[in-house]
Please model this.
Amino acid sequence: MITVIGSINMDLVVDTTIFPKQGETVLGNLFTTVPGGKGANQAVAVARLGGDLHMVGAVGQDSFGKELTNNLKVEGIDTQFVYATDEAATGIANILLYEQDNRIIVVPGANALITPKEIDAAKSLIEKSEMVIMQLEIPADTVQYALQVCKDLNVPVLLNPAPAESFNPSWMDLVDYLTPNETECADIFSEDVESALEKYPNKLIVTLGSNGARYFDGKEHIFIEGYKTKAVDTTGAGDTFNGALAYAVTNGQSLKEAVRFANIAASLSVEKFGAQGGMPTLQMVENRLGGQIK
Ligand code: RIB
Model:
């Protein structure tokens, strides 16, 4: 089983063909609300593939909170440790979809109230997990605490350092896999990608959007090319990659196979609207991989 500790947001998505200049009002095409949040997205990615997924997170006692918790349940995710707080509203993400790309502002709300207390409460769950996945849309102190708990319990961690501002370099000793994109990698390590990768063989995996992902295996740089497809909405592609990577590694795939698997899952995810809309089942990934995985 896999546990995700992280954010749950309602995505408020505006699709527009005109990008407003400062002070300008423009007419957009479509407004939609869909489930999101990096934590919840990664959880759904694992569950769609058939993984046994448990979520630790928080929502507000409002209609978004109920809808999002229910969405996780419908996806087959255990929500015993998803708290409904009356101290904050459910987190939201304001997403502007423009020219097949997105710009996102997150207002954390209840996600900011996940503390070490909630991590302690979920310790029995963490202990049983084959892997814990985290991101950085919950407080950095909580991430730090959870990383230490996982280390003490000997549970492997995949940390997706997004958004990267609150990343602490000392966490490199506490994580098993770190999966920044190129921009996050540059922000975190302040050096070129090659040298950063060489310092963390088989641990640092840099995602390259539609171009795939890369890592250093201790001897050589490994590039796993992405599957080229027509993107409808790239929101959640990184989350799909992370969920699929964790699923594949915990199912015994080598890192190389797992990255290939995750790339394919991410390529399928961008073909439909919404962060979770296109997340694939195992069958869909296997079909695209052409039966290469067992
Ligand atoms: O990674 C995509 C996600 O980032 C969106 O679903 C949004 O909620 C933000 O957290």
